[in-house]
Design goal:
heterodimer, A: alpha/beta, Rossmann fold, 2 domains, seven-stranded parallel β-sheet, B: Rossmann fold, nine-stranded mixed β-sheet, two-stranded antiparallel sheet, 13 strands, globular, binds flavin-adenine dinucleotide
């Protein structure tokens, strides 16, 4: 058995999601290879060589992989696939873009967002916004799986007997798609998916100004990432990529503090695996208290500054 | 240009799911069903393209049981011009749906196919990408804005940590994210009108597509219940409860894990 992992990276460096996928691959068993496909991405490939458990790093470096479009990336992986029993990617926006496309090229099913490995052909995945967990078995010769990063520990990095990246022949440039713009959120905070503490705000904060004025001092103190409900994002309090939930980020930090969030199932889907959940809400019947460990009923405009001061 | 838009019949997003006692799946008996919310957004976008004079015809497609006709009638009431049901009682998985849609696309020759980015039942987020691969078309997934001009499509995509804009040649596949638009409600006159719009029924066999499932669901269970909530009276009590968490403990200069 050999497993190919599509690395999450930004050319200059490896993203931490890759480490969690390596751990998931370890639970399947078999030789682990990592593919770094990008443009001027050798630094990311060298970083992948440092991950414990990885025996080979494939480097496909070409300008037509700049932007890591799904069409060219899937075509490249299609040519590599026959050597593998499993192909894994994080259930990131990139992994979710590429892996189903590859699956169709290979005429195999794809298994999305696994949270556990039951055996090399059987996986556990949430369905219905995490209200049910399905155990599914694949009969395909190659298993294509995206991995819910928050469900697996990060593999160790920084081993000494490192492997060297192996440059591979690049696939064709299909010329189907061109990236013409990209705006990444600038933040000095930890990434939402990897943060140990997440402070999440909802519609209850009532304005963008309140959202920032109340949540940032608390997040600063705790070194936390800031997340939000869909309602807060739709109201323009904070950027789209802060959305937590069924259709946003999935987080599982040590501490999650939900402030002015009602706890709709679509939101809970993204945070229910957090270690400790604290909810602050003025409505004692808010569903968020059904998933919270500690609940505080009251006006967030009074309680949040109090909490920040008390820490 | 013709636009194909896909709609899936799923459990209504407000309904609490119940798991069957034998662990074989989710109990859909007597449960309110509705159009997948992401597909409502896809339909809305297609209809807006027609209203803007960019699309000439909007064809809604659904794959599944006979009752998917209701979902298609909703799409027609929202403004689609006609509808196609690929009827089967087989439990359809994303690859099978993508193959059915490919067969429909080869017959209908649309310039654009818009799908919801995921269905809220299986949460797979696969079908649009698979369809694009089968057609060898470009894909713009998780789209939050669309512009079509001069045979090209520009789409802003919601990606981890920000957003990006792609330009792809038509024909293309787009999957709709939540913020692409706010779908309208079907008005009563439009619901009445929709009853007279054409709805064609076909089958996987007629399209020559093998829809045999590739994945077997061995069991479906409820997620682990969390412990009951402890309601605290004030901030001081809350802080006492979370003081042992390392990130809090460091702040408070207390011993870790205590
Ligand atoms: C297909 C689909 C996908 C979705 N995906 C997501 C998703 O990924 N993530 C997501 O979050 N949502 C998602 N939603 C939306 C979800 O259903 C809810 O609408 C949303 O989560 C509500 O956000 P909220 O809790 O901030 O707002 P509300 O439900 O309006 O809750 C606001 C809360 O703030 C409290 N409050 C108000 N003022 C105060 C105050 N002064 N002090 C204390 N408390 C106060 C209120 O009591 C209330 O409980 C999705 C919906 C659909 C249909």
């Amino acid at each position: 058995m050999a497993i190919l992992i599509l690395a999450e990276h930004d050319d200059g460096g490896l993203k931490s999601e890759t480490l969690n996928v390596v751990t998931a691959a370890g639970k399947i068993g078999g030789e682990i290879h990592v593919l770094v496909a990008g443009s001027a991405c050798s630094a990311a490939a060298r970083a992948a060589c440092q991950i414990a458990g990885v025996v080979k790093v494939l480097l496909a470096d070409a300008t037509h992989y700049a932007g890591q479009g799904a069409e060219n990336t899937a075509a490249l992986m299609h040519s590599l696939a026959s050597a593998y029993t499993h192909i894994l990617a994080p259930a990131s926006s990139h992994g979710k873009d590429v892996l189903p496309r590859l699956a169709a090229l290979l005429d195999v099913a794809q298994i999305s967002d696994i949270v556990a490995v039951a055996s090399p052909d059987t996986f556990v995945r949430p369905i219905y916004a995490g209200n049910a967990l399905a155990t599914v078995q694949s009969a395909d010769a190659i298993k294509l799986v995206t991995v819910r990063v928050s469900a697996f520990e990060a593999a160790e990095q920084g081993r000494s007997a490192a492997v060297e990246p192996t440059s591979i022949a690049c696939g064709p440039d299909l010329g189907l798609s061109r990236r013409i713009g990209r705006e990444m959120s600038q933040s000095t905070r930890p990434e939402l998916g990897a943060a140990k503490v997440v402070i999440a705000g909802g519609r209850g904060l009532a304005s963008a100004e309140n959202f920032h004025n109340l949540l940032e001092p608390l997040a600063d103190k705790l070194g936390a990432a800031i997340g939000a409900s869909r309602a807060a994002i739709d109201a323009g309090f904070v950027a789209n990529d802060c959305q937590i939930g069924q259709t946003g980020k999935i987080v599982a930090p040590q501490l999650f503090i939900a402030i002015g969030i009602s706890g709709a199932i679509q939101h809970v889907a993204g945070m229910r695996e957090s270690k400790v959940i604290v909810a602050i809400n003025k409505d004692p019947d808010a569903p968020i208290f059904q998933v919270a460990d500690f609940g505080l009923v009251g006006d967030l405009f009074k309680l949040v500054p109090e909490l920040t001061a008390a820490l | 240009m013709k636009v194909l838009v896909t709609v899936k019949r799923v459990i209504d997003y407000n309904v609490r799911v119940r798991i069957k006692a034998d662990g074989s799946g989710v109990d859909l008996g007597n449960v309110k069903m509705a159009m997948n919310p992401f597909d409502e957004i896809a339909v809305e976008e297609a209809v807006r393209l027609r209203e803007a004079g960019i699309a000439t015809e909007v064809v809604a497609v659904s794959c599944g049981v006979l009752a998917c006709q209701d979902t298609l009638r909703t799409a027609l009431a929202l403004g689609a011009d006609r509808a196609i049901l690929i009827q089967t009682d087989v439990d359809l998985q994303p690859l099978a749906v993508a193959k059915l849609l490919q067969a429909v696309a080869l017959k209908e020759v649309p310039q654009l196919v818009i799908l919801g980015k995921q269905a809220i039942d299986d949460d797979a987020n696969q079908t649009g990408q698979m369809l694009a691969a089968l057609l060898a078309w470009p894909q713009a997934t998780f789209a939050s804005t669309l512009r079509v001009a001069d045979g090209k499509l520009q789409a802003t995509r919601e990606i981890d940590g920000g957003q990006e804009t792609l330009e792809v040649a038509l024909p293309a596949v787009v999957t709709a994210d939540l913020r692409l638009n706010e779908p309208r409600y079907a008005t009563l006159p439009n619901i009445m009108k929709a009853k007279k719009k054409p709805l064609e029924v076909s089958t996987p066999a007629e399209l020559g597509v093998d829809v045999t499932p590739r994945l077997t669901t061995l069991k479906v269970v409820e997620p682990l219940k969390r412990q009951a909530v402890v309601m605290v009276a004030d901030v001081a009590e809350l802080v006492a409860h979370i003081a042992h968490i390392p990130q809090v403990a460091t702040l408070r200069n207390e011993p870790r894990g205590n």
